[in-house]
Predict the 3D structure of the following.
Amino acid sequence: MDINQTPLYRRRKRLNQLVMVLCQLATVIGFIFLFAILFTLVTKGIGAISPSTFVERTRMNGGGLGNAIWGTFLMTCAATVIGTVIGVAAGTWLAEYSGKGLMAKVIRFINDILLSAPSIIIGLFIYAVVVVPMGNFSGWAGVLALTVIIVPVVIRSTEDMLRLIPNSLREAAAALGAHRWWIIVRVCYSGARAGIMTGILLGFARISGETAPLLFTSLNSNQWNFFDLGSEMANLPMTIYQNMTINAFIPDLVALAWGGALILTAAILILNIAARYFSRQRS
Amino acid sequence: MATTNATPTSGLGRLSDATRRRLQRKARIDVWFERTLFAFAFAVLLLLGAIIASLMLSSWPAIQRFGLDFFTENRWAANVEVFGALPAIYGTLLTSFIAIVIAVPVSFGIAIFLTEQCPGFLRQPLSTLIELLAGIPSIIYGMWGMEVLAPLLRTWFPSVFPAGTGLATAGIILAVMIIPFITAVSRDVINTVPAVMRESAYGLGCTTWEVTRRVILPSVKGGLVGGVVLGLGRALGETMAVTFVIGNNLFLNTTLTGQGTSIAALIANQFSESDGTQRSALLALGLILFLITFAVLAFARYLLRNSTGRHA
């Protein structure tokens, strides 16, 4: 009898085919859901976007999203700048100075926890330590909440990227008489720059879509607020949230929320693609 | 390195005063550079302490007033000042459980498809797509759940989902949200299996499924479970994807599909209009959520410590 015809062989083959079909089915189901979301987003969002969406402020009827887009951009940039300084410094310590000590292990563990801590908790924390003492919601509180979210991302990518720099480079620089800080600044950073930039860009993309930490920190506003971080700052995610909940009875505002959601998602996807492009340039 | 440069050795003695001062200044910079960096790293440690301390302090009045009743009271009624965490805790755990039950088989299926079966030209584009989808902000998932999924469920299964929204709907939305995440982690983990192991199993005559089941999965078990637990951590703390579709029913409703609430949704809905005891009780809920996710994430990191698991 041909070995391919034994019952055992047939059973194994059938089981294999069954599982493989199930895997393909899972792939199809997963992508159907995700494409359905993107499809809804584009079909509902595209109609609500016009040039005036970007320049007019939010109003109870009509209006645009200009102030919200600006507020999100400003707060995200400010948080990214602060987060980069803190994150790169801390990540450098972990990669270059920490060794195998207990302190490094603890900090790394805490950083991993903060990396995936619920963002609404960060919002509550900033509310308790910034908003309550200051007495009002403010753009600064929003910036700080976003900073707490981006710092772990930057620390992680800085450490990972610096660890990729071969030790022989450090040793060569040291043999030429360079001090250790000089080696880090001139040799290690220039080698790891593209990777660290990728991490920062991904962090930027992540915090620009965060809603929960802004609920009790920067709140929202329907006025233009260009640089006054001391008072409430309009922002895109909160505007979307409010238009979909407390203002949901006004069809125009719901449509505008979908427009805003499309703008936000498109910006985040472009940032992610740019980050990917950056890291490919490196290798 | 720093100390050898700073110590005046016989070699340094031969240098001019200016050169020696310059070297000593650089050595001092070296010391301060390290101290500054360490201060920033230490700030991360303080940050976690500050988060826990501030949540504890600000929720203390509620904890003191309600004590253990906080965990047994089955309703959250602000008008009569009765605050029970049970409905929110039940909703948080149940929605996350539903999400994991749906997301794990689908994600593993996609990951196995991508690593074992997928034709080469599709592998990279599909993997990139999955990673990009993991970056979509969670509020988008919530909006889609409210506008598309909930009405669909109401039309298709009116007896199971009379309102469309509810705990099960929230669970489904969470599942869709964490599928790209768990898939990306699982794919990375599976890709760490050396090709030699795979090839030797195929060489013995194994089918694709037998290779996956007997060789690949056992060797990366820890990493896979770690990825799932990380996904669970996301689902537990998710606010925006859930708030829109969970129904916001503040009384305990121990069904699968009924309307309910979760800790994050309850905080998001009530915090800005609350004060006094209610605000303190909401902060206590936040503390509970943080402790739950802390335990879950610590467990995930423990499992992932030897795998790649680079994802946030």
Observations:
- The mean pLDDT of chain A is 91.
